[in-house]
Amino acid sequence: MESPHGAAVSAQDFGLKGPRGWVFQGVDLTAPPGSLVAVEGPSGSGRTCLLLALTGRMRPSRGHAEVDGLRLPGRAGAVRAISGLGPVPGVNELDPAFTVAEHLRERALLRRRFDDSLHALLHPRAARAAARAAVDAALDAAGLDLATLPKAERTSVRDLERLEVLRLSIALALMGDPRLLAVDDADLKLSDRERAEAWRLLRGIADGGTTVLAVCGEAPEGALTVRTGGRRNTPDGTGAPDGTDPAAPTATTGTTDPSDITAGSTTTGKETADASTGTGRA
């Protein structure tokens, strides 16, 4: 039987401290390949920083984590190479003035440049066909039908509905064939119906073998859940109420400096910088 494409993710006493205190701490998690992991908590509770730390884009202050056997923080660059990141404010946001086609074209060009430049140079026609196939596969996996958009692929990001923006960002991340897909604010500003659609999408990607890590306000039933902001986390990711173990650290809130987040382009460019000081947006 073929093993899942996704990366196993684990953490032990994982924490990040910024200039104003702990952003999150005491995170324990064990998630096998192909898991749907929900990072649940209120805004400002360190959810996004935990997502960035587990994808090698922020340096933790305590404990350790592993993604596909790659230990963090030491192998942060290798973890970034196998993880796909959806839009995070201040890190790699979509450009609202770009059209859907422009974002897809940019990502396809970057994919050819960094992943297959020699082959593309020697076989440009085959490379273009491969890029088109990658775009089509990513759009299909993200459930984004360009024909349903107001101006099809010429629709600007600013004219997309919130769920369509989420689908586009996931499609762009999937074009890199990641083993770990990380999505920030997965349920932000969605209606109940749209939220259910979003979780069906993410669960479908996880069921297909790719591990999914999603920040949210409320985790869906059945997801492995890491809770920030007042609940102790257990190794299986289920969480436990405060007070079950007075000696155990809890995920707590904190604010940090967004200029220190490991980041690349603020649109859809390839992220290149190495892990830095371990401070960033909560």
Give structural notes.
There is one protein chain. The protein is α/β, with parallel strands linked by helices and 282 residues long. It has one domain (9-260): P-loop containing nucleotide triphosphate hydrolases (Rossmann fold). It contains 7 helices and 9 strands, in the order βββαββαβααααβαββ. Strands 6-7-8-3-9 form a 5-stranded parallel sheet. Strands 2-1-4-5 form a 4-stranded antiparallel sheet. α5 packs across α6 (162-174).
CATH topology: Rossmann fold
**How would you classify the quaternary structure?**
single chain
Task: Look at the structure and give the mean pLDDT.
Answer: 81
Helix content: 25-40%
**Largest sheet report:** 5 strands, parallel
How much of the sequence lies in strands comes to 15-25%
Count of domains? 1
User: Residue ranges: pLDDT <50 for 5 or more in a row?
Assistant: 238-282
Ends apart, CA distance between termini: 40 Å
Q: What structural class do you assign from the helix and strand content?
A: alpha/beta
The main sheet orders its strands as 6-7-8-3-9
Q: Which CATH class applies here? A: Alpha Beta
The backbone outline, from C-alpha atoms, is globular
